[in-house]
Amino acid sequence: MLISHAVRHDALHVTLHRDLDVTHRAAAALQIQALVEQHRPARVVIEVPSADPSPATLSALARTHRLCAGLGVPLALSGASDRTRRLLDANGA
After folding, report:
1. Burial of 62 from C-beta contacts in 10 A (0-12 / 13-18 / 19+)
2. Which residue, 7, 21, 76, 82, has fewest beta-carbon neighbours within 10 Å?
3. What's the confidence (pLDDT) of residue 5?
């Protein structure tokens, strides 16, 4: 299992259980996209497996960031370093 999720108080909480590699990046991004589209949450919180995720994990997060920005849904990362948050914000700008 790559991800798990829960919906609490209008927020979609997604947990990435491990850093992604290129063979799992697209699958995880599509799963998260489907969850966002299905639940239409007020915000999304993604718990990452490490403070500095792999490039493939960052790629999936960037894709999710763009999706959420396009829908006007705030995205927050749990467990990520400030550096990772800055990378994601710079990529989504």
Report:
1. middle
2. 82
3. 97
Tell me the per-residue pLDDT of 45-79, one tens digit each, with 9 for 90 and over.
999 998 899 999 999 999 999 999 999 999 999 99
pTM equals 0.89
Q: Which two tokens stand for residue 90?
A: 């710079």
Question: If we measure between CA atoms, which residue out of 2, 1, 73 comes closest to residue 36?
Answer: 73
Whether the CB-CB separation of 19 and 47 falls below 8 Å is answered with no
- What integer pLDDT is reported at residue 87 of this predicted model? 83
DSSP 30-61: HHHHHHHHHH--SEEEEE-SSSS--HHHHHHH
Question: Domain 3-17+25-92, what architecture?
Answer: 2-Layer Sandwich (3.30)
